[in-house]
Design brief:
CATH topology of one domain: Protocatechuate 4,5-dioxygenase, Chain A
Radius of gyration: 16 Å
Order of helices and strands: HHHHHHHHH
Strand content: under 5%
CATH architecture of one domain: Orthogonal Bundle
Shape: globular
Length: 122
């Protein structure tokens, strides 16, 4: 678990720590299953049944149904696993980054470019 005195939270972020890992286990296990093409298709064919197979919590099911990536993160989703699910929704990593930071995709891309320039010129 994060130590808030040693590691203060970053405003606007949801920390993925041991508690979040336990909370999000079912959601992350489901997303991990999407490494298999047949599982991705099974999800597309019957989303509710696929979520039920992994015993997602009501909050996790609602976030998935709403395509609410931030809600999935709040429900214990790990972004590395959620990327598999986001791909099914037609979202890429930059789309998700924009959602996480409250920017448009264009603004997020510019933010990344600006950060790279700052690092390069130190």
């Amino acid at each position: 678990m994060a130590d808030p005195e040693r590691d203060p939270p970053i405003p606007g972020t949801t920390l993925f720590d041991g508690d979040a890992a336990v909370k999000g286990y079912a959601l992350n296990a489901m997303c991990y299953s999407f490494n298999d093409t047949a599982n991705r298709q099974a999800f597309v064919d019957d989303e509710a049944a696929y979520c039920a197979k992994f015993a997602l919590t009501p909050a996790q099911r609602q976030a998935v149904a709403d395509r609410d990536v931030l809600g999935m993160i709040a429900a214990g989703g790990n972004i590395y696993y959620l990327a598999k699910l986001a791909g099914i929704f037609g979202l890429n990593v930059q789309d998700v980054g924009a959602l996480q930071t409250g920017r448009t995709v264009a603004e997020f891309k510019q933010f990344l470019l600006d950060q790279g320039k700052e690092l390069a010129h130190g």
